[in-house]
Amino acid sequence: MMTDNIFLKIIEKKIPAKIIYEDDLCLAFNDINPQAPTHVVLIPKKVIPTHDEVTKEDKELLGHLHVVAAQLAGQLGLTDGYRLVINCKEHGGQTVPHLHMHLLGGRGLGWPPG
Ligand code: 5GP
C-alpha cells in the first residue's frame, strides 16, 4: 500500500489546502483546479489507493463519505443537484493514488463524461 501521496500531505497539513470540513475519518477541501463553480475533493484519512482496493471493512467509511457529501452539498447550496465522482485508475482518469470523491456542482453538468 502506498504510504505517501499529495492528499496525505494535505491530511497531515504539510501542504496547504482550503479545507472546508474535517472529522476523524475524512477531510474535504476545494479542488486546486476546479471543473465547476463548486468542486470539492472529499477523502478518507485511511489510505485506500484506488476504488479497486475497497473491501467490506470499508463499508462504514464509504457510507460516511456519502453522508458527509450530502451535508456539504446542502451547506454549499447545491439545491439544484450535483455530481459525485470517483475516478479509478488509468481509464477512470485517476491522478492521485488516494481514493477520493469529487463533489461537483453549481452548473448543469454534461453526460456522458469524455
Ligand atoms: P483525480 O484526477 O485523481 O480523480 O482527482 C485528483 C484531483 O485532485 C484533481 O481534480 C486535482 O485538481 C486535485 N488536486 C491535485 N493536487 C492537488 C493539491 O495539491 N491541492 C488541491 N486542493 N487539489 C489537488
Protein described:
The chain is built from three helices and five strands, in the order αβββαβαβ. With 114 residues, it is an alpha+beta fold. The longest helix has 17 residues. The radius of gyration is 14 Å and the shape is globular. The structure holds guanosine-5'-monophosphate. The site of guanosine-5'-monophosphate (5GP) has 13 residues, from strand 2.
* CATH H level, superfamily name: HIT-like
Oligomer: single chain
CATH C-level class is: Alpha Beta
Tell me what the CATH architecture is.
Answer: 2-Layer Sandwich
Bound ions, cofactors and other small molecules, one mention each = guanosine-5'-monophosphate
**Strand order in space, largest sheet:** 1-2-3-5-4
State the CATH topology: HIT family, subunit A
Q: How many structural domains does the protein architecture include?
A: 1
Strand count: 5
Strand content: 15-25%
Structural class: alpha+beta
Sequence-ordered SSE layout with sheet pairings:
Layout: H1 6-11, E1 19-22, E2 26-30, E3 38-44, H2 59-75, E4 82-85, H3 89-92, E5 101-105
Antiparallel strand pairs: 1-2, 2-3, 3-5, 4-5
The chain binds guanosine-5'-monophosphate.
List keywords for this structure.
114 residues, alpha+beta, HIT family, subunit A, five-stranded antiparallel beta sheet
Describe this structure in a few short sentences.
This protein has 114 residues and is α+β, with helices and mostly antiparallel strands. The protein is 24% helix and 22% strand.
